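Task card 7
Instruction: Convert sequence to structure tokens.
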Amino acid sequence: MTDPTPPSADSLSSASEGPVVLKDFVVITGYSGAGKSTAIDVFEDQGYFCVDNLPPEMIAQLVELFRHPGSKVERAAVVCDVRGGSYFEALNSVLTNLREHGTVHRVVFLRAEDEVLITRYKETRRRHPLAPHGSVADGIALERKVLGPVEALAETVIDSGGLTVHELRRRIVSELLPREATERMSVTFESFGFKRGTVRDADLVFDVRFLPNPHWDPSLRPKNGRDNPEVLAYIAADGQLGEFYDRLLPLLDFLLPLYTAEGKAHVTIGIGCTGGRHRSVAIAEQLSTRYGAGDQYWAEARHRDLLAGG
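Output:
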């Protein structure tokens, strides 16, 4: 019968077979309502293997799996907090053992003042995990007694009071994510036809119906804007397409790095014309080619209405 007891941190030192694949292991903890969910989302968006609400006693077991020769996990992040109940009391000793046995890891602690936490709980109307039937203030007071020793072990302490969610994400990206670990932001240029509605999940939408419409040329009507030089030449004939790019490209060159710095993992840019077959398709293709040419972004063109007909 297999022993169900997770291995202790002492067993980590015996995992010497094969190369150590795990390059970065982040333990996120702190006060309920201080931004731990935002933090774990940032790491997940950047390609980390993430586990939320992990009991501390399972940290050693998880690291053991990551250090196994067959593991492909190079970067991982876990959240351990008071939701684990009595199990959370072991976190302090687990972190100490990790450090004593040379397991490379980082502890990130999220905190905020009582007034901030109480306000956030009022806004979300959620119960505090340490006071499910009492006041939020009582829960926070109990939490401070439990978290004091853990905060002392943290390499990074972030006070999220006064920070918006976007500001917290930016701070986590700039301070906690290794530059080489940050994945390139994905940018999707999605063409569509306004007569079927706009792209619902687009972050930006540009209307290109002011450009010449190949639909009115009988020879071009059955064609589309994908890899079709005749369609593109028709759209660009009066020079307005060039003027559009003269204004659009500097705007995107300005915005996309800011979205990356904010911690966005994906941006969708909608390009709309009347039917979503000629103009918007050609422009989405050209933009995806331009922004996918370097190593700064993953870029793709998606065409919602290209095959819709009509």
